[in-house]
Amino acid sequence: MRKLILLFILLLLPTGCEKGYEKYELKVFDAFDTVTSIIIYERDENEANKKLLKLKEKYLELHRQFDRYNNYENVNNVKTINDNAGIKSVKVSEELYHLLEKSVYYNETISDKVNILIGPVVDYWGEYRDLYNTGHSKDEVIKKLGSAIPQEEDLIKFKSLVDLDKLVLNEEDKSVFLKEKGMELDVGACAKGYAVELLCQYGRDELEIASGMVSAGGNVKTIGEPVTKDYYKIAIQNPENIEDESKDPYITVLNIKDNSVVTSGDYQRYFTYENQRYCHIIDPESFMVADKFRSVSVIEEDSLLCDYLSTALFLMDYEDGLKLCEDLKVDAIWFFQNGEIKSTQGARQMMEGVK
Fold this sequence. Notes:
- Helix content is 33%, strand content 25%.
- By secondary structure, it is of the alpha+beta class.
- α1 (45-66) packs antiparallel against α7 (191-205) and α7 runs antiparallel to α8.
- The two termini are 39 Å apart.
């Protein structure tokens, strides 16, 4: 799964534990196109390791369901749906059905800046990114694809393929049908957030984990409170200082608990053409890449909503995004192209050292 993004978020965790608790961590390298850290606090090492393995198994299961690039035996996933576009409906798991249903609901009620049928457009831009990032020249790209960068007349052909009215969700049997051949679901704007949300729910409700967190690239969700402090400290990286170790690597440090932080940015997956950066986040109306911000971080309890909003806000004007946050009562931090940082009042209150 390629949530083609994101800012790396550094987890600043307590180094010592009280009441007999210790920190236990497991890393997952083969899910959602990122390295995921699963951290829990437990008194017993054997019990902790058992829980971590169960969490990993659950996380990999969700990855297989939400994957649009690979098929798996006995799994109907996003790729299965795409493979059957214009052919037949596909029965899917409760988790995948809910992800699609919720994404459509958010599109209709919160913001239409995220469209889970954007797959063909993402893939088209991806062809250019792959060529430029493997050293191909402008002339070579033009020879292979017909233009140096995607042109409006080339992009317009995808209009019929991103019509959400052509996505049929059947609640009764949890089936999904794409009406037109060539349609492609891409749930990269929300799948990882939903997987992290489900994983934390599973850890808390089924495994009785009282304290921990999951960090999947730019998606972080905490479970309960840290065992030694009042808050978890989540540092959000400064996209301009990634390669310069002499500069402050972070925009800010947030103090949070029982909450999610999701960041979308322009510097994990992009290509450069004539000194302009073309990132992976694409406007579903114009089919052009976003260029308003370097990053947008959203803080909200529900990691799925966080993930959706981080992409939506990245594509919206700041004033419209701020109004949306106020209406939804969620918090956000915007890092502009010129280095300016703006945030909601609630986010400022979470920032360490900021009044």
